[in-house]
Each structure stands twice: as structure tokens, then as C-alpha cells.
């Protein structure tokens, strides 16, 4: 029943015109400008295989994240990198292409860490299988992980296999009143200790952490770390993941994502900040007038990079400029995999 | 390692002396003379890696002392169109560091410094020649360690781990090299210095770090690596469970995972393996059991207590005929000693052995073990199976005697057929040892011509000159055509007369 769609994908690619690969369209705002005719992947959907005891789920690109979550939920399992969906229509293909991870990222890993395999349609309309449905696989280059965060620039993702994990048995969300420097110090100290610390968020002089895992481990950590319990902790982390948290409710301001070493000192930039991932991800609602160059310079000086996540003026470049050597590899990869520049041209970098 | 030792490729020099002089002279212009080896007595130790059956004397070996020298070596080799084989400790099991006849081996042996150990950020910056275990030893005073622990960790280097995406017995819970490396600094064949990843958890652009890890030295030469360090668990305990049936053992593994537990280690051995190791190490294994399962829990004392209790319950319910739980660190190590000595034990009971490395969906374990038992009869060779059961990575150890006519050949055919079976049940030909030269033909079984061409496209983006370890990991169309004369490709099996499940 899915063959006609595959055939139509192939025909669209064969036309050789730029395509804007699109699932639920929930992240149209992400990346550089959208160009090309829309290729809608939503019809190519459905979970192909889910083996809870193998910890692997395989689904077609158009499968909604909601469907995947429901299937995993029924077996007390989850996507441990907690991908944001930004709307109920979000698809798994879009999730992998966008490569965005949520609150669990620092503890559990990113999207790419959980991608085990993929089927891709290339610029010639051929279907290629990379990786597989097993945890350990070093046969050939790990192209399926390269697809995570590629923004659809290398090919059309048709199917993905993802590693899943059990939901933690117990969970507790704790709140502490503390300033930014203090929170960063604590988070990095705790990060070096065997604690079941699986998410963190600091903003407005409040640090919120999630302890989750075995019941005994969570209880022991609660006793040791203190803080006060936040009721409805799960709602807090969901809102944070989906950027429904009050911090994000200022759409007129440019939202920057700074990815830094967790130990980087507090940033001296004008604008409100929210810090996740134990200090390694810092959201900045830039004050008007704060220019991209200053933000990028601060991120570089701290040993990381800055992207214009949402809003603002994309003319400044959404993603941090690459070094010439790394950009050279990007150009050659694009040339090799998509010589006619059909797949999402310009979505990641304007001239790629 | 007591891997097979039959040289079945030429061991004599196969390069022109004039070419050797030309290349050695070029290398000596960029590194001190003692860093270039070319006399046969000096290059002989580099003729193979851990897969000793595959040997080739290199034209020269170069041991750069710093990154500037690596850059200069790459440029010199590019100018002369000399092929380069990067090499760490040479412990690899797939011949990834086997030299190329008229090529140069580039050893990272002199890159053996831990550049920085940072407790606050839980990272270490190390040179590629630093041994895997040395990182954990240096991190230990901070209560931290580097999680991936391949069995060769006392000798293997982090550069080699990056090349192979090495795992270890704890990778179900703690991940592979790709999950534990934040940054790689490397030099391309054109002599450009490239940083992939960084000090943060991600980097802008395509995730080139993810694809570089596991690329078997074919994309660039690593000069520095930043690894993630994690807190050392306060405690670890292991359960040893015996089963009277391997299928029950396999099901027990599935049941543990279905119960929502991710053990720190989850290993299985068949009866041939436990009988092989028990006289050697006296681990206390039940040698009449068809399968022994080792199930480890780590974390805080409270956490371990809780998890051990839950695992014991599941294993009992899954039909374990005996269960023992380690009561001390000494006992834990004793339980593990059998599993960890499986390879040496194979070397003790058999003159040679050949270690395979397929990964399968765990639910197909019984089918695969039955298939292997059938092959034992067909090839008239014994096979002991040890299994990283948590992640489906199976290490059949084919026992043979290289001095007996045609046994190595039979072992090779046996191995190739096991890998085909792994692919047929939805698995892969290599879980952690890499393709190298050893499994290059099996790549023709697992990947279609357009998929293999995609790998070459990726290589061209990093190494357009095709000079870095070019004959490894990805077979050419020509090679697969040759192999295909004897073997049919994916979906069609070689021996239709054999039962398959």
C-alpha cells in the first residue's frame, strides 16, 4: 500500500527541481529559508516493527511522534532524548532531520545517539539501507547517524530505527532558589557524582532538577540534595521540552540557542536566559539591538556555538559559521550525495 | 591473542626498491630519521594487527611525534600518491591496520600523552595513542572513568577505538565510543587540520563526528580526542544464572529488559564456552548448564540492592535452574573471570581460533545457535559461543588447527556463513570489531551496490585522493563481483539445502 507513494517520491526527485521535504510542518520556522516545492511525507507512515524486548522501534518517516509515543507508552518505554514535537502533527522523519533533543539530552544522549538505522531515498531515487535494527553495528560508515540533524539536505529519509529505553520507575522534580553562577557550580558538581540526575533547568534564579531511575536511588538523592518537591513535575518538563514554559512566551524576541561546555561561566549578554542540560544548553531571549556577531563571539569564546533558534532576522545566518575545512567537507558531501541540489537546498546554510 | 596464524597473503616485500627510497627520503625530509622504519627487521612487527592470519609487509612505517609532522606526512604522501594505513596499538581483530604492500603505515605510538584531565567538566583531552584503560586510571582519583571498555582495553588505544567505534561489556547501558567522544581533531589527506564536535554537546552543521567514529582510518588521521568521563558507580554486583536450555536463557534476557531493567552488563555463554573456560579459571560455572547468564547491576548501594532483587525475580520466573549473586567484589570478579577469559581459554584448548562478531536481533538467537550447530557438523569444526546478550552481539569462536590441511580454509568459510546467517535474520556482519580486510567480502552480502557506492561518496568527501586505508571496509564493485561468483547476494542464500529459520 505504500508503494505508490514511494513511486511518487521517486518521480518528484527525478524531476530534478528543488524539493522542500516536509512532514507535519511543525518546524517550518527552524533553519534557513524554505525553498522548493513541498514534498509531503505524511502519507508514508506507520510503525513497521516494535519489539519492546529488543529496545528498537522502526517507523516510516510520516509516522507522527504522537503515535510513536503512544506505542512506547503502552510498554512503559520512551524516547530517552525527549524530542520536542512543537505540535501534534510532528513526524518521526522530521524529528530525525531536525535533530533536536529535549531535557533528557545531557543524561541520556541526543537523537543521533539513538538512531540505529535508516532507509533513505537518494538523489537518483534509489532506496539505501544504512545501519539496522540492532544496537551494535559497525558495518560501513554510520550514515544513519549523520542524517540526524541534517535537515533533509542529504536525502529523503523513508524509515528510521530508533533505540528506546524503559521509563524510569521513579521520578522526583526538585526546586532550589539559587543564582546562575551557583546553579552552574552545583550542576557541574552533581554531574561528577553518581546521581540519577536526568534533567535540569535554571531561569529567573530558580533551579529545577529531575531525579529519575530506581526508586531507592531517587529517594537517596532526594534526601541528599534537598530542595523542595515540585508537584506535577512531568508537566514542567513537557512544557520545557515543547517551549511552552513562560520563558519562551515572548515570540517577538529572537531566541538563540547557545551550546557550550557545561562549565562555561555565566554569559554577559543582555537578555533573559534559561539554562538546560547541566549548563551545556543556554537559551537567550536577545534584547533588541543585541547583534548576532556579539552572541556568536561570546559562544565561541566560551568554547561552543550559537544558533538563531527561532524568530529574529535569519539574514545573520541561523547556524554558527563553520571553519573553512569543515565547510569544505560539507560542500563535498552535498556535491556527492545531492549534485543537483534537490534536497532542502539552503535550509542549513544559504549556499549549501 | 591466539588468533589464527596462517599467512594466506604474500609476506614478502612487493614494492620496488627505488620507490621505497623515494618515499623514505620524502618522509625523512619531514620527520626525524629514526621515525621512519624501512628495514625489514624493523617493519616486520607491523605486518599484521590482532588478526594475525592476514599479513603484509609495509614499504615503510612512519611514527610522527607531533601534529605538524602528521600534516607534513600527509602532504608528502599525497604528492607521491602513497597509500597510508593508520595504526594504533595493533590490537584490532579485523585486519583494519593490515599494511598495504606499497603503502606506509602511520603509527600513532608517539602520541601517548594525556593532554588535559578536567574534573569540573568531566572530560579528558588525550592524544590518539593513549591506551583506553590509561584514561580511566588517570580519571580514577576524581571518581570518574571512561565508560567504553573493549576487552583489549589494557592495550588498545583511543585512536583505534575511534576508528572502530569500540564497545565493551557495558555498552548496553553506557554506550559505544560514538556516545562517549565529544571531539576529534584530525588531519585530512590534504594536510588540513579539522575539528569535529567540540567542547559542547553538539556542533553546528552536519554531525561529521558521528560518521567519523567507526570509519576505520579511512577519512583522516586523528591527532587528539576529547572524551566524556562519567562518575564511577559506587558498587557493582553480578548475578550468575544457569539454564538447561539456551532458548530459556535468551528469553530470560528478553524478560529482564521487558521488566524495564537495563543491566550494566548482560552476557551469555553456551555450554561449549563454559566447559572451555571452567577448568582454566575456576569461575564456578555450572558446566552441565546449557547456558550461563551473567547479569550485572551498578549504581548506589540502594539502587543495586533494588535492581538485583528485581532481576533475581525475573530470572527465577524465566526458569533459571540455579542463581548465585556475588557477595563481594572478589566474587564478582571471579564470576566475570570466565567470560573475560573466553578467548584465552579458546587458545588453550585449541591451537587456533577464529572470532566472529555478528549482531542479531536477540529473538533470533535460538535460530542462529541452531544454524551454527549445523555448520559445526558441515565444516567439521567446533564452535564456542559467547554473547553480549543485552545488545545482540554474538562472538562465535571457531576452533581449528592451522597446521592441519585445509582447517583454516574451512574456518574461514564457516565464519563467512555465520555472517550470512546474521544478515539473513536481520542483523549485521560486525557489531564491534569492524570490517577491516577480514569481512570485506561479507560487506557484499549486507549492502547493495548503490549502498556501497554511497559509502565511497562519503569517503570521497573526506579523502578525494583515496589514499587513506583505501582497500579496507568498503569493497569495490569488482571485488563483490568476484565474491559473487561463488556467493549469491542478499536475500538469496548460498546453501539452499541447509535448514534456515
Structure report:
- The complex is a heterodimer of chains A (352) and B (501).
- In chain A, 28% of the residues lie in helices and 26% in strands.
- Chain A is built from eleven helices and 17 strands.
- In chain A, the strands form four sheets. An eight-stranded antiparallel beta sheet of chain A has the order 13-10-12-11-15-16-14-17, with helices on both faces.
- The two termini of chain A are 35 Å apart.
- In chain B, the strands form four sheets. In chain B, strands 12, 13, 14, 15, 16, 17, 18 and 19 form an eight-stranded antiparallel beta sheet that branches. A five-stranded antiparallel beta sheet of chain B has the order 5-6-10-8-9.
- In chain B, 37% of the residues lie in helices and 19% in strands.
- Chain B starts with 16 loop residues before the first helix and ends in a 15-residue tail after the last helix.
- In chain B, a hairpin with a 4-residue loop joins strand 5 (114-118) and strand 6.
- The interface between A and B is large, with 88 and 97 residues.
Q: Assign a percent range to the helix content of chain B.
A: 25-40%
Main beta-sheet annotation of chain A: 8 strands, antiparallel
**Largest sheet, spatial ordering of strands of chain A:** 13-10-12-11-15-16-14-17
Residue fraction in strands of chain A: 25-35%
Chart the SSEs and their pairings:
The complex is a heterodimer of chains A (352) and B (501).
Chain A: H1 3-14, E1 19-22, E2 37-40, E3 47-51, E4 56-60, H2 65-73, E5 77-78, H3 92-98, H4 105-108, H5 111-114, E6 115-121, E7 127-131, H6 143-147, E8 156-163, E9 165-166, E10 170-177, H7 180-191, E11 197-203, E12 206-213, H8 215-225, E13 228-229, H9 233-241, E14 255-259, E15 271-276, E16 281-286, H10 292-301, E17 305-310, H11 324-337
Parallel strand pairs in A: 1-2
Antiparallel strand pairs in A: 3-4, 4-8, 5-9, 6-7, 6-8, 10-12, 10-13, 11-12, 11-15, 14-16, 14-17, 15-16
Chain B: H1 17-28, E1 36-37, H2 40-43, E2 60-62, H3 67-80, E3 84-87, E4 104-107, E5 114-118, E6 123-126, H4 132-139, E7 144-145, H5 158-164, H6 171-174, H7 177-180, E8 181-187, E9 193-197, H8 208-212, E10 221-228, E11 230-231, E12 235-243, H9 246-258, E13 265-270, H10 271-281, E14 291-299, H11 301-317, E15 322-325, H12 329-340, H13 342-349, E16 352-355, E17 358-359, H14 365-379, E18 382-388, E19 393-400, H15 407-424, H16 440-446, H17 449-462, H18 477-486
Parallel strand pairs in B: 2-4, 3-4
Antiparallel strand pairs in B: 1-2, 5-6, 6-10, 7-11, 8-9, 8-10, 12-14, 12-15, 13-14, 13-18, 16-19, 17-19, 18-19
Helix pairs in contact in B: 9-11, 10-12, 10-13, 14-15
Amino acid at each position: 500500500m505504500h508503494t505508490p507513494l514511494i513511486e511518487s517520491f521517486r518521480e518528484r526527485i527525478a524531476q530534478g527541481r528543488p524539493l522542500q521535504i516536509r512532514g507535519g510542518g511543525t518546524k517550518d520556522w527552524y533553519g534557513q529559508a524554505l525553498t522548493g516545492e513541498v514534498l509531503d511525507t505524511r502519507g508514508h507512515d506507520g510503525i513497521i516493527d516494535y519489539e519492546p524486548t529488543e529496545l528498537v522501534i522502526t517507523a516510516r518517516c510520516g509516522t507522527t511522534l504522537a503515535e510513536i509515543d503512544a506505542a512506547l507508552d503502552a510498554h512503559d518505554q520512551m524516547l530517552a532524548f525527549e524530542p520536542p514535537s512543537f505540535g501534534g502533527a510532528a513526524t518521526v522523519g522530521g524529528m530525525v532531520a531536525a535533530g533536536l533533543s529535549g531535557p533528557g539530552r545531557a543524561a541520556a544522549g541526543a537523537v543521533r545517539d539513538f538512531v540505529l538505522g535508516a532507509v533513505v531515498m537518494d538523489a537518483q531515487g534509489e532506496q539505501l539501507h544504512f545501519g539496522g535494527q540492532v544496537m551494535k553495528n559497525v558495518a560501513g560508515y554510520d550514515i544513519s547517524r549523520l542524517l540526524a540533524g541534517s535537515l533533509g539536505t542529504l536525502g529523503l529519509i523513508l524509515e528510521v530505527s530508533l533505540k528506546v529505553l524503559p521509563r524510569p520507575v521513579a521520578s522526583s522534580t526538585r526546586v532550589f532558589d539559587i543564582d546562575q553562577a551557583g546553579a552552574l557550580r552545583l550542576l557541574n558538581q552533581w554531574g561528577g557524582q553518581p546521581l540519577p540526575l536526568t534533567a535540569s533547568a535554571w531561569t529567573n534564579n530558580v533551579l529545577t532538577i529531575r531525579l529519575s531511575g530506581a526508586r531507592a536511588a531517587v529517594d537517596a538523592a532526594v534526601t541528599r540534595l534537598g530542595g523542595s518537591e515540585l508537584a506535577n513535575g512531568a508537566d514542567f518538563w513537557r512544557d520545557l521540552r515543547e517551549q511552552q514554559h513562560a520563558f519562551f512566551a515572548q515570540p517577538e524576541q529572537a531566541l538563540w540557542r547557545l551550546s557550550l561546555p557545561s562549565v562555561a561561566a555565566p554569559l554577559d549578554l543582555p537578555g533573559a536566559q534559561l539554562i538546560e542540560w547541566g549548563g551545556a544548553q543556554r537559551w537567550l531571549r536577545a534584547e533588541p539591538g543585541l547583534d548576532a556577531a556579539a552572541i556568536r563571539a561570546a559562544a565561541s569564546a566560551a568554547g561552543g556555538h550559537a544558533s538563531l533558534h527561532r524568530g529574529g532576522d535569519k539574514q545573520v545566518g541561523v547556524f554558527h559559521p563553520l571553519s573553512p575545512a569543515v565547510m569544505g567537507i560539507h560542500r563535498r558531501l552535498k556535491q556527492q550525495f545531492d549534485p543537483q541540489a534537490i534536497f532542502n537546498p539552503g535550509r542549513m546554510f544559504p549556499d549549501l | 591473542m591466539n588468533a589464527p596464524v596462517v599467512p594466506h597473503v604474500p609476506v614478502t616485500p612487493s614494492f620496488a626498491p627505488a620507490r621505497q627510497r623515494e618515499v623514505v627520503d620524502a618522509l625523512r625530509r619531514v620527520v626525524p630519521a629514526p621515525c621512519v622504519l624501512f628495514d625489514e627487521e624493523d617493519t616486520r612487527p607491523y605486518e599484521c594487527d590482532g588478526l594475525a592470519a592476514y599479513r603484509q609487509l609495509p614499504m615503510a612505517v612512519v611514527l610522527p611525534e607531533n601534529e605538524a609532522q602528521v600534516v607534513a606526512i600527509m602532504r608528502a604522501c599525497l604528492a607521491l600518491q602513497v597509500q597510508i594505513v593508520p595504526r594504533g596499538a595493533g590490537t584490532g581483530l579485523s585486519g583494519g591496520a593490515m599494511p598495504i604492500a606499497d603503502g606506509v603505515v602511520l603509527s600513532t605510538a608517539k602520541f601517548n600523552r594525556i593532554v588535559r584531565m578536567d574534573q569540573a567538566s568531566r572530560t579528558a583531552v588525550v592524544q590518539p595513542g593513549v591506551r583506553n584503560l590509561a584514561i580511566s586510571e588517570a580519571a580514577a582519583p576524581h571518581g570518574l572513568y571512561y565508560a567504553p571498555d573493549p576487552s583489549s582495553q589494557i592495550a588498545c588505544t583511543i585512536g583505534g577505538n575511534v576508528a572502530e567505534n569500540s564497545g565493551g561489556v557495558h555498552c548496553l547501558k553506557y554506550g559505544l565510543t560514538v556516545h562517549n567522544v565529544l571531539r576529534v581533531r584530525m588531519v585530512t589527506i590534504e594536510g588540513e587540520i579539522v575539528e569535529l564536535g567540540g567542547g559542547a554537546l553538539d556542533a553546528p552543521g552536519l554531525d561529521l563526528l558521528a560518521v567519523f567514529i567507526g570509519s576505520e582510518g579511512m577519512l583522516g588521521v586523528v591527532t587528539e580526542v576529547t572524551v566524556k568521563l562519567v562518575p564511577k558507580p559506587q558498587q557493582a554486583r553480578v548475578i550468575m544464572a544457569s539454564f538447561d536450555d539456551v532458548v530459556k536463557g535468551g528469553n530470560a534476557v528478553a524478560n529482564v529488559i521487558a521488566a524495564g531493567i537495563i543491566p550494566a552488563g548482560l552476557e551469555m555463554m553456551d555450554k561449549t564456552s563454559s566447559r572451555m573456560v571452567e577448568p582454566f579459571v575456576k569461575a564456578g560455572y555450572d558446566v552441565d548448564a546449557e547456558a550461563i547468564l551473567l547479569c550485572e547491576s551498578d549504581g548506589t548501594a540502594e539502587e543495586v540492592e533494588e535492581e538485583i532483587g528485581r532481576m533475581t525475580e525475573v530470572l527465577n520466573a524465566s526458569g533459571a535452574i540455579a542463581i548465585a549473586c556475588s557477595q563481594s567484589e572478589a566474587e564478582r570478579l571471579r564470576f566475570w573471570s570466565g567470560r573475560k577469559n573466553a578467548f584465552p581459554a579458546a587458545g588453550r584448548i585449541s591451537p587456533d581460533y577464529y572470532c566472529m562478531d555478528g549482531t542479531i536481533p536477540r529473538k533470533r538467537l535460538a535460530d542462529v545457535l541452531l544454524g551454527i550447530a549445523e555448520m559445526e557438523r558441515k565444516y567439521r569444526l567446533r564452535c564456542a559461543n559467547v554473547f553480549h546478550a543485552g545488545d545482540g552481539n554474538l562472538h562465535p569462536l571457531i576452533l581449528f588447527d592451522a597446521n592441519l590441511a585445509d582447517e583454516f580454509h574451512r574456518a574461514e568459510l564457516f565464519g563467512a556463513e555465520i555472517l550470512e546467517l546474521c544478515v539473513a535474520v536481520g542483523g549485521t556482519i560486525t557489531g564491534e570489531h569492524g570490517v577491516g580486510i577480514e569481512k570485506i567480502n561479507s560487506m557484499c552480502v549486507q549492502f547493495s551496490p548503490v549502498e556501497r557506492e554511497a559509502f565511497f561518496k562519503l569517503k570521497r568527501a573526506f579523502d578525494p585522493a583515496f589514499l587513506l586505508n583505501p582497500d579496507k571496509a568498503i569493497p569495490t564493485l569488482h571485488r563483490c563481483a568476484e565474491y559473487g561468483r561463488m556467493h549469491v547476494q542478499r536475500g538469496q542464500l548460498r546453501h539452499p539445502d541447509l535448514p534456515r529459520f
